[in-house]
Amino acid sequence: MAEGTQSDTQPLDYDQIKDWRSIVTLVAFVLANIVVLFPFHIPLFAPRKLYHVFLRGLSILRITSHPTQDELDRRSQYVDPDGQVKISAFARFDFPLNIVTAPLIADLFLLAILAIGRQEVVEGTWGTENISPVDIMLFFVSLAYIAISIDASGVIRFLAFKVLQWGGKTGHRLFFYLYAFWFILTSFVGNDPVILSGTAFLAYMTRVSSNIVHPRAWIYSQFAVANIGSAILVSANPTNLVLAGAFEIKFVDYTAHMIVPVIITGIVLFPFLLYVVFNSEKLIPPSIQMHELPEEMRMRKPVNPNIPHARGPAEQQEDAPGEQGTLLSLEEIVNPFLDRKGAIFGAVIMAATLVAVLAVNAAAESTEKKPVFYITLPAAFIMLIWDVVFGWLHRHETREIARKGREELERLRVQQALRDQQEQEMMTAALTKRGPSSDGSVSGQTTALPDAGLNAEKNTEDVISTTGDSPEKSPTEKVKEEPNIPGNKDSKFKTPGESERTQPQRATLVSKTKDTYRWAQETFPTATAVIAHLPFALIPFAFSMFVLVQGLVTKGWVQIFALGWDAWVKKTGTIGAIGGMGFLSVLLCNFSGTNIGTTILLSRVIQAWRHIHHLDHINHIDSHPITERMFWATIYTMALGVNYGAFSSAFSASLAGLLWRDILSKKHIHVKRLDFATVNLPIIAIAMVVGCVVLIGEMWLFKSETPLEAV
């Protein structure tokens, strides 16, 4: 038994849960997880004048620019019952309660009432009972940098395009190829890169297909298989790191026990998805009809999407309805950007890192045990240096691409503003010309408006055709007719650079920060994009959850949960342990702070369960000892449940689920909570049943009924 917070001979005190601080600790844990499941904002109010003084103070200190009247009044405006906009005496601020803030506030509250103290914070941060949060976070974030850097090279979208070519236009074959591709890829690089690039790829692919009515089959299958495949390697998911550390499992042993149930789950699940869950030609048509990309767009040199404004106006137009948006989406698929050197270098670094991690972890018994981030952190630093040096060597090219794209985008905005202004002027002129009838009656005004609208429409078309779309005008004539287009000397609409030169603004901390970030994006596009996509939200959330769970440990709740689990397995045996842990782990993923929070809590419960039997063994009162088969069946079922549980009933069951939802929302595919739960219910059911059945056979073949204390 590893040294931890509990003595090997100290009897457990179950009466401490009656203390009011223990009860409050449990309530705080439950409420924090409810907020994670249902995030919201709470309004906070401050005196408007005090808020104005604060803003002006920031301006005086040159932190922000001088606030305009609109900025001063924005947080004080409200609409009265008559529909009038009024200014309140208070400024309103919406404070977010979400996956980051809720557990942290719960920790601070428990510290304030002395329900937890220094011991819980230290053990929840630096670790105890073989769980080291700092080591886990450093390992995962450093490995995530390498994986996301590989994704930023464009290789995942490029390979997905190749899979699309191999699959051809046969719907079922393409569905299988993409399913297998996501599974294999996730097994090695984890689910975050697959979610980042794969989700956007499928959104584009289903949009440019004329006979895929809804992308449901493709996006749900990808999300499910990405979380199934992440159960194979310890490095693929932070939940696996927590579990392997808590029970001192060698990474090779973990993979050896998990690979068979996971692969068989993937094999059985595919026909179930194809012929049962998504058995509709509207979802997976026998023959997929794709729009054709014009040769001109096909031959266009792809640009690095990590460069800001790299595609100019196309970045805004690709989501627009109509043929133009469809063609731009199609271009994203069939003409993908690929940084070959970056992809090859990243793949080599990732392969070398994984091999080194497995080798060092396997040799840990014969050598001094070292944290695995000793390997991944230097590897991530090497990858970062590559991205920075590569960006610096190509800085002139990337800056030029960004400048041209920014100017094109600004020119489009100015032209659109000019057209809108002229449309408004023509509309006003038309309404004035056909104004109300001489008798001033209401009926006269009412009948005049439709005609005015029709006339305005005609005038609008005339304005648009004369300002830029008429094929009969020469470019010189267009410039004469459009004196306000950017680039003309007399233009009242200026490009960003011209505006800054004519009306220089005082530099502030905020403006300098924005300029620095834009400079970094244009100079080091890959490194900046990768850092922006790192799962930083995981860090405060994970540490806060570790501290909360440690509070449950010291207040006796985890021991109570362990007694409940012990009573269950005494009645049901190994099969009951597998079934019960499978159900419990999936359920708690949705109600216990994502699958990471679930893994932390259940790992502590199983450790306490083992500790209880260890004490009973010492005192010679252990009539129902934990067997080797029962113990490891519980552990590996938990591994299945916390990975598969990501695709169950709530987006917040995993951070990957929140990322998946946000990416789809940006691509105008809005997935509702109820739809997410109902579609995933049969998928998670069949996946867990298959995985648990295979695990039962595996445990009976390779584990014995020998008591764990005797092993």
TrEMBL record:
Topological relation to the membrane, as annotated: Multi-pass membrane protein
Keywords: Cell membrane, Membrane, Transmembrane, Transmembrane helix, Transport
Residues annotated as transmembrane: 20-46, 95-116, 136-164, 176-204, 224-247, 259-278, 342-360, 372-393, 530-553, 574-593, 635-660, 681-702
Compartmental location: Cell membrane
Record keyword Cell membrane present: yes
Ranges of Basic and acidic residues composition bias in the record: 470-503
Region (Disordered): 432-510
Bias (Polar residues) ranges: 438-448
Alphabetical list of InterPro entries matching this protein: Cit_transptr-like_dom
Presence of keyword Transmembrane: yes
Domain Citrate transporter-like: 108-387
Any one GO BP annotation for this protein: transmembrane transport
Gene Ontology, cellular component aspect: plasma membrane
Coiled coil: none
Name of this protein: Citrate transporter-like domain-containing protein
Species the sequence originates in: Dichotomopilus funicola
